[in-house]
Design goal:
- There is one protein chain.
- With about 140 residues, the chain is an all-alpha fold.
- About 60% of the residues lie in helices and about 0% in strands.
- Helix 3 packs across helix 4.
């Protein structure tokens, strides 16, 4: 497991260590959420309401469970996207690559990230701070 540098109490964006690590691991699930939303079929279109009366039962409803799971995952993914956009603006895609895929500053720099090390780490720290308030 990777070692994480937890912000100190003197930091502008201080978050307790447990909350910080929770936020880090929350972000690391982003690729899984994205893959699940892209690969799982959307079965909500399988329900037809064209009849006069829709029948329901008290049995297990797989369609509604899948629809609710997709909505929950979509909200989580959107929260990470919105927080990155709030914090980084045009740097949002780079922040997501760093926090969700675990890429280091040097790996991002090789891919063409247009900012310096201090700015990137400051944006990432603020991202974790803002996200920790939301989850």
């Amino acid at each position: 497991m990777t070692q994480y540098r937890v912000p100190t109490r003197k930091s502008k964006y201080y978050v307790p260590a447990e909350t910080y690590l929770t936020t880090v691991h929350y972000c690391r699930q982003y690729p899984l959420w994205k893959q699940e939303l892209e690969t799982e079929p959307d079965t909500s279109k399988g329900i037809s309401y064209d009849k006069e009366r829709v029948q329901s039962s008290n049995q297990y409803d797989a369609t509604s469970d899948i629809a609710m799971r997709r909505q929950m995952i979509g909200r989580k993914k959107q929260l990470v996207d919105d927080t990155a956009a709030l914090v980084g603006g045009p740097m949002a895609e780079w922040i997501i690559l760093g926090v969700a895929h675990g890429l280091t500053y040097y790996q991002l720099q090789q891919r063409g990230m247009p900012c310096g090390k201090n700015m990137y780490y400051s944006l990432r720290q603020r991202f974790y701070f803002e996200l920790s308030k939301e989850i």
